[in-house]
Amino acid sequence: MNVDVLAFGPHPDDVELFCGGTVAKLVHLGRRVGLIDMTRGELGTRGNRETRDQEAADAADILGVDIRENLDMPDGGLNSRDYNQRDIIVQCIRKHRPQLILAPEAKDRHPDHKQGMELVAEAVFLANVGKYPSSLERHKTRAVMYYPMWWHPEPDLIVDVSEFWDVRMKAVRAYQTQFSSDGTPGPDTFLAQPKFIEWVDGRGSQFGAIIGVKKGEAFTMRLPIPVDDPFELLVNGTGEANP
Questions:
Q1: How far apart are CA 234 and CA 115, in angstroms?
Q2: What is the mean pLDDT of residues 16-22?
Q3: All domains in the chain, ordered by first residue
């Protein structure tokens, strides 16, 4: 199925945690949106493959996306030098032909986050190489927005997601095995403590404050953003340029 936007996450729940509001907003604006989980998160301390599959399906329903797929790569084993893994993502991009990709940007200790970031970045390039071996036609993605994971960047873009924050957080809470502190069985983890959800909420407030709105989600860009009319973008657009 062709989509307008494809959002990649190394694990189920990564997209919801770091750019779920943007996904919900794009759906609301009428864009066809797909979510791609690279692994099933089977090494997680809490939950298992089956419960996380169901939680991912529930979260997708909450966000209203058109598709959600899992590439079934090994949790803890993402590797940007694994040509087979990279090929899987190339074929995924060529299959769904998105104009915009949301991809992880990682500077943290989780190896899957960093390797997932590189896998998607390299696959975006190779999906547009005409002689790359594939039964699917080459595809050029028009733009890639990288969502920061466990760090606070100097963002290139901040999306106002104030109206969609409640939906986004409902999708996050669909992962009860990961983030619930209400007696859901499982060992104690940082993710399952109430302060983790408070951190997620505070992060949205921090990025929102930078652009003068209630809640925001930050993105970085690896290439300059082409602008035809800066006046239209910064003055007549949806937000106000910072003085």
A1: 35
A2: 97
A3: 5-234 (3.40.50.10320)
